[in-house]
Amino acid sequence: MIKKYYLLSPGPTPVPEAVLAAAAEPIIHHRTPEFSRIFMETTEGIKYVFGTKEDAFILTSSGTGGMEAAIVNTLSPGDKVIAINGGKFGERWGNICKAYGLSCKEIVLEWGRDFTKDELEAEIKADSGVKAVFATLSETSTGAVYDVRGFGEVVSKTDAILVVDGISGVGATACPMDEWNIDVLVSGSQKSFMIPPGLAYIAFSPKAWKRVETSRLPKFYFDAVKAKKNLEKRTTPWTPAISLVIQQKKSLDIIKEMGLEKLYAHHRILAESTRAGIGALNLEILAQKPGNILTAVKTPPALDGVKLVKVMQDKYRAYIAGAQDPNKGKFFRIAHLGYMGAFDVITALSALELALADMGYHFEMGGSIKAAENIIKENWT
Amino acid sequence: MIKKYYLLSPGPTPVPEAVLAAAAEPIIHHRTPEFSRIFMETTEGIKYVFGTKEDAFILTSSGTGGMEAAIVNTLSPGDKVIAINGGKFGERWGNICKAYGLSCKEIVLEWGRDFTKDELEAEIKADSGVKAVFATLSETSTGAVYDVRGFGEVVSKTDAILVVDGISGVGATACPMDEWNIDVLVSGSQKSFMIPPGLAYIAFSPKAWKRVETSRLPKFYFDAVKAKKNLEKRTTPWTPAISLVIQQKKSLDIIKEMGLEKLYAHHRILAESTRAGIGALNLEILAQKPGNILTAVKTPPALDGVKLVKVMQDKYRAYIAGAQDPNKGKFFRIAHLGYMGAFDVITALSALELALADMGYHFEMGGSIKAAENIIKENWT
Fold it and tell me: pLDDT per residue over A83-134, tens digit each?
């Protein structure tokens, strides 16, 4: 058989064919009116998805570069901050803060456990002078989605700024920056923005801009003031990844045509069908409050979780994601963000059934598909 | 007429058609053996072009991010450094050093003026405790190429490290890192590496690695130790710009097949034909020691230099580059690096002739073409 490759990971995600084709067009210069127009339309599209009236900046970097930009532009050495660490990416906030000499209180949660706005409020009250709270919209390592709206209610009453990693979440689940009182929002190109990796996006609230003015952490490449001055001239301080920006413009056209509400509904339906399928297999979801971006599923106790992922990836070529260290093997992750459709969910569940059958797990073949199909059928409008 | 667009700028540069097409292929995941193989072949190709046995690292960023990586990984706050500033990009070394609190002595040269190894030696001797010397192989703002080999002879006798911006030069002119005693070499994807912008490349000598161990400047995204640990596992610390890496692999295949010596000869011939053409128009080259990467040409005194560039760019759609601030209008730049051929030089000269004629400059039409053709003809083997 021809063993086709199916990309079902939470980043990179599949890219629409017309968007892929755009990268094959000859390169144009970035200091031209032609590129400036595309560039400005792209930043407008990012503002739309971010739900903000503020400027959105396009950085040529991975999402991690965007996270670093959030920190170095708003804080000063020794500043006291709180980082909510519910998994690999929440942990990264703390690691960057420590690398830059901030005094970081990490709230380490068991992977998959929720964290409420009341718990956050208690943490902030316990510690005077907190300058920033770092949170994650969708924790890609666990599939958990946090109450960012609630965090905004709590943090906006204090002098601290709320900094949110929306790398996998923005575009798949609602996260209106201005309405939810988010002060710095970061995202990346390779998740729900539906293009290859290489660009990060960031925006700052008026409260965060005040911090930018007094921030004393060293920065150059990620300097927001330089980015702002250049955006006023419809350009970037450094040569941007031109072909990726052009691709992003094309993907944003698709997103805008569909509209955010429909896009969120799409991902909700994909997530509900995935969860229904998983339930039919008597498997358990990891996250206490699972999001619609990806679904992390606990490995059945009798099975070798590392092997299960390997069988799905290598034998069936369905590239789902395993669990990251230190939880390798304990669960696996099926993504349904970005340019994924109903039959990508079906593919993931079917590859899972085949792998489970190979490994001697007892279940009714096709059962997860039937459960997922019922959800798809109800919603296929 | 159909007014075709010709990209003749010193970055971005034209991308070979087969390399453009590679970006239209579906995205594969970066944590797969399939991508790891491409990634490692790409780093091997960069090592080949860099002329080094050391590891080469691929950063998802503009070249400026690579320059920042060179600084934050090898130095500590307050370190005394020397930066040779012969134009916009030499100036950038000084600006990044200052942003990171280094004690930077800038050697500000008149744009286009050369700087010798003896002058550098005198500067180093005048100031004890210099930790690093920052130089530029090819100063993209002026077309000057500096004696990096000589700088290596001088700096290697001291405790300082030699850090070289090879962003536009590497791949178009010889710059063997190990042989020339360069301690940190930086380049970028959108120049002679013949792909779109978005990746930066960097390598460290054993002497530079010792500095990495003791460096106390803050860093996270550009951390070389993290990059090295991940390279040992055939991967990157953060999600790389997958599609650009795949394109880089394809371009490096072309470069390796041709071989570096032939590639340098190619660019030498393009540069000589350009200079011959410029001479035939009685125009003057800006750089005291012009390189083979781009040719900066002084605007004839009677003409408006900003308008000349605008006529070439807008009317004839030959996208050459103007001079950057504070020298706007004083000269213009014709590039012949990367994927440029003999008839790109002819196009640039012809568009120049047409623009000069429009503006009333007196010369023999076709004269520059004839001069360039003679060089091309002699070398067309």
Answer: 999 999 999 999 999 999 999 999 999 999 999 999 999 999 998 999 999 9
Do residue A65 and residue B221 have CB atoms under 8 angstroms apart? yes
Q: Which residue of B has its CA nearest to A102?
A: B218
B204, B304: one domain: no
Q: Are residues A193 and A295 in the same domain?
A: no
Q: What is the mean pLDDT of chain A?
A: 97
> Under 8 Å CB-to-CB from B133, ≥6 apart: which residues?
B81, B82, B83, B84, B120, B124, B151, B155, B160, B161, B162, B163
Nearest to B117 by CA among B157, B77, B66: B157
**Is A1 inside any structural domain?**
no
Last residue of a domain, one of B199, B233, B258: B258
User: Same domain for B338 and B313?
Assistant: yes
Contacts of B198 in chain A (CB under 8 A): 60, 198, 240-244
Count of domains forming chain B: 2
CATH of the domain at B181: 3.40.640.10
Q: Which of residues 23-82 of A touch B (CB under 8 A)?
A: 23-30, 32, 60-65, 68
Compare CB distances from B196 to A62, A188, A242 and report the shortest one's residue. A242
Chain B residues with beta carbon closer than 8 angstroms to that of A241: 62, 196-198, 241, 244
Cβ separation of B220 and A68 shorter than 8 Å?
yes
Could you give phi then psi for residue A148, rounded to 5 degrees? Answer: -65, -35
